[in-house]
Automatic annotation (TrEMBL):
Protein name: histidine kinase
Gene3D superfamilies: 1.10.287.130, Histidine kinase-like ATPase, C-terminal domain, PAS domain
Positions of the PAS domain: 9-45
Ranges where the Histidine kinase domain occurs: 135-342
Catalyzed reactions: ATP + protein L-histidine = ADP + protein N-phospho-L-histidine
Enzyme Commission numbers on file: 2.7.13.3
Amino acid sequence: MFSPDFIWDNLPAGLLVIDHQARIRIFNRTLANRTGLPAEQMIGQRYPEIYPGTNKLKLLEALYTGKVYDQIRAEEVLPVPHTSILAASCRPIITAGGTITGALALFTENAHLREMQQTVMKADRLAIMGQLAAQVVHEVKNPLTTIKGFLQLLKEESHNFPKQQEYLDIMLEAIDHANAIITDFLQLARPGCSCWKRYAPEKLLSEVCLLMESEAALRDITIRQVIPEVLPPVWIDPEQMKQVLVNIIKNSLEAMPEGGQVTIETSCRTQELLITISDTGMGMNELVLENIFEPFFTTKASGTGLGMFIAKQIVHKHQGDIKVESVPGKGTTVTISLPILHREGGMP
Ligand SMILES: Nc1ncnc2c1ncn2[C@@H]1O[C@H](COP(=O)(O)OP(=O)(O)O)[C@@H](O)[C@H]1O
Ligand SMILES: [Mg+2]
């Protein structure tokens, strides 16, 4: 039971031993399982002949030069598939008299490499899913437009049938809602659209204010900007960051049905730029505050619940943070922090 064969077959590591003629003497079961190579066919073969054309195998170098290799890639010893997550160590086998009589290679699981591989595979899968989702959503837009067009036609032709008109209105509303979700979703997943720039915060804010001013005026709301004289530049995707601010300001406008004021304030801390957007609106309770960043969470009849979720994703992509404070009946303050640019291209 304690024969050497039995013991090395049960080793939790792969073991490959060659003699002084480079003939394989030991090819244990763990290594056979890990590589898919049949041990019985490997034992007795000359090791270099398994891989004709490769003379840089580290195990041969250990045999011929006495060199020791630790934690090298397993492919450098056994160039077969499936070994990439194994690490290998090679040693010459030396007699008491100092003669090299063979060499051995030990293969162990490279846990760090395996973890990295799994992370990369997962990230790849997610990126592909994201692109696919964006494309699918984009494609759905066209048929929805067609359906909406025909529903509008039907509505025009059915003014004598109030019940039908009512159904058609519900259908049109549902289509508008689906379109709103698509538009919001595409803010985050615009395929292939990402353009990072060194950007002046005051430029970003004035562009956003310009975008929002007419809607604010319609609602009897003023937008006030408080900007200190000198602001350091930030490294951002300006289109996406504008989207963040638009989503937040839009919520503020929607929270003030009777009019009010939105204040956008910018300031600098040591390493970060702070942008706070405060409103004098209805505020929100604990439950809403806890769920505000959840996708599809909305308290509005025609809301998508994607605005804040998307804002958070984008801010995190900028290595920043976003926080919300609110007092029901008084108003809400959203604070975004972004890292300040210290050197050219210092961020992704
Ligand atoms: N400034 C704000 N004042 C009051 N409530 C807010 C404000 N911003 C967000 N909320 C709440 O958070 C919810 C989620 O916001 P959002 O993700 O933008 O989705 P939506 O605006 O489509 O509802 C809103 O439905 C609202 O209840
Ligand atoms: Mg919103």
